[in-house]
Predict the structure of Diguanylate cyclase/phosphodiesterase with PAS/PAC sensor(S).
Amino acid sequence: QAKDDGRNNFKFYSPDMNRKALERLKLETFLRVAIVQQQLSVYYQPKVSVLSGKMTGMEALLRWQHPELGFISPAVFIPIAEETGLINEIGDWVLRQSCLQARLWQAQGYDIVPIAVNLSARQLKQDNFAARVVTILREAGLDAHYLVLEITESMLMSTGESGLQILEQLRDDGVRLALDDFGTGYSSLSRLKNLPLDSLKIDQSFVRDIVTDPNDASIVSATAVLAHALNLKVTAEGVETQEQLDFIRMLNCEEYQGYLFSRPIPASEVVKYFLPD
Ligand code: C2E
Ligand code: MG
Ligand code: MG
Ligand code: MG
């Protein structure tokens, strides 16, 4: 039982904490099995031009279907993969899978669009990360311009100068960078200015009530002005209704992503959104 009488500093774990720790341990073990048994797959969610309504890109999103537990959300297992270091292996796999899929679509004659893959801080901390990405692209036979890496503000805070150098290297190699979940972390404007970014994704928490909450509307509006001043494209996340879409159009966002156009879907369903070549 938890014990804290002020005289000693140690505490025993409460039964509840114990249960959580056990669940984590179980998930970690399951996740290792999942990698080996190929229970992981990649879904793709279109990014859409606000003006034309056409698909301009897509984001790769990891899916885990466990034979007994069913669908496990990346919001649950990615943090565990990050803590245990499994994210490096999983992250490499998602990158390779996405690049191979894009190359396959291209070989099938589709006019492909850039494909965005989410990164974790831990991946950026591998000092050979830029070289790994280049190798994956080369092995897949995919031009670097078709790859976008999504990074977050908090990632940048934790990886510091060396992380920035890796990102600059990747940018020089032709890979594009997007800043994900913008507005939820802390990034100073000076830092933003120095980043080799192509686009900025406004977090869905600001988009959700954009029509009814003037504060959210102001935040999105100001973010779009800032982004455009820095020559960045703006993508609104989590657009679910026509009213939200009309609103972000008014605020000059170029691109959106959300259930209104499409949920994340398996590769086989993506092809209907490619334009005829
Ligand atoms: P994210 O990168 O910000 O991805 C957007 C999330 O919003 C996805 O959740 C997507 O399914 C969801 N979403 C898209 N449109 C809508 C909408 O209109 N309404 C609502 N309510 N949600 C929408 P998902 O797939 O569950 O992924 C959650 C997070 O897990 C991602 O957030 C990302 O941070 C992480 N993640 C997913 N796949 C990977 C991966 O391969 N590597 C890494 N490092 N992280 C990943
Ligand atoms: Mg993302
Ligand atoms: Mg996002
Ligand atoms: Mg988000």
